[in-house]
Specification:
By secondary structure, the protein is mainly alpha-helical. The protein has helices at residues 4-22, 32-37, 39-44.
């Protein structure tokens, strides 16, 4: 069985992450359109994987 201190730490950290994700305008999420296009193109300007048949 898990140590109660470990369980408390896990629940506290998870709750903190959830609260941070719910704050509007914090910038932890990308726009849905950018995510659909691919983050490597929209954020970095290059493709992460190139399917040119060289491999």
């Amino acid at each position: 069985m898990a140590d109660p201190g470990d369980v408390a730490w896990m629940l506290t950290a998870s709750a903190l992450v959830l609260v941070l994700l719910l704050i509007p305008g914090l910038g932890l999420r990308v726009a849905i359109g950018k995510e659909d296009l691919g983050l490597d193109i929209t954020l970095h300007g290059e493709r992460g994987y190139v399917a040119d048949g060289a491999d």
